[in-house]
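My main concern about presentation is that the manuscript never shows what a single data entry looks like. In essence, backbone conformation is discretised, so a fold becomes a row of integers matching the chain in length. An entry of this sort, consisting of the sequence and the corresponding backbone structure tokens, reads as follows:
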Amino acid sequence: MTTASARALVDRLRAICLALAETTEKMAWGEPTWRVRGRLFAQLDDHHHGADRLAVWLPAALGIQELLIKSDPTRFFVPPYVGPRGWIGVRIDRRPNWRLVTTLVHDAYAQVAPTRRPGPRRRTKAKSDPGRAPALRPSRARRPT
């Protein structure tokens, strides 16, 4: 694989990752990684420790790693370090199915993206209707003792 073709594959992966909300790219361990609010959801594997592949490592839902590896062991693998925690390695150097890669990246993002907490509720003032009398509050009259 030429350097130019490898760069094109990485650029395509980068575009998929950076299209997701609040995603940033950060170099870590000598490789590009993609994060959402500081949480890692994708890491490039560019022949890591002499491996014969260009791939991406992604966290996956329970059972997905095993299912994918059984379905296509030439495309999917258990990555070192994070594989025991369910991450999946996806080769992008052997005619990748970019639709599947995109789906797996989106799923990985969803695995780690913090859920948004609703902001404080805003009180809205009731709009007054000029043709309507204001609502009366019940009086707090004291009871005779």
About this structure: The CA atoms of residues 20 and 106 lie 8 Å apart. The helical segments are 3-18, 64-71, 98-112.
